[in-house]
Specification:
With 76 residues, the chain is mostly helical. It is 74% helix and 0% strand.
């Protein structure tokens, strides 16, 4: 049924209708991008900076002790 309406459009108006449809498509894709940006910005606003002073050697030794049951110096 909608195709019937398109067939009735005079030839000189077809380019105008196509321009309108392209404009609608651009607005729709822009809205989709804006939604993604807003979601990203919300996530970024929830993100917190944590200052940690980690001693990686100690952390690794503790992990190995828990995981394998030995201290890092006991392996040799």
């Amino acid at each position: 049924m909608r195709l019937h309406y398109l067939e009735q459009i005079p030839e000189e108006k077809v380019s105008f209708v196509l321009e309108v449809l392209q404009g609608i498509q651009e607005v729709d894709s822009t809205a989709h991008i804006n939604e993604k940006e807003e979601a990203y910005n919300r996530l970024e606003s929830m993100r917190k900076r944590v200052e940690l002073d980690l001693d990686y050697e100690t952390e690794l030794a503790e992990y190995r002790n828990v995981r394998y049951g030995y201290e890092s110096d006991d392996r040799h």
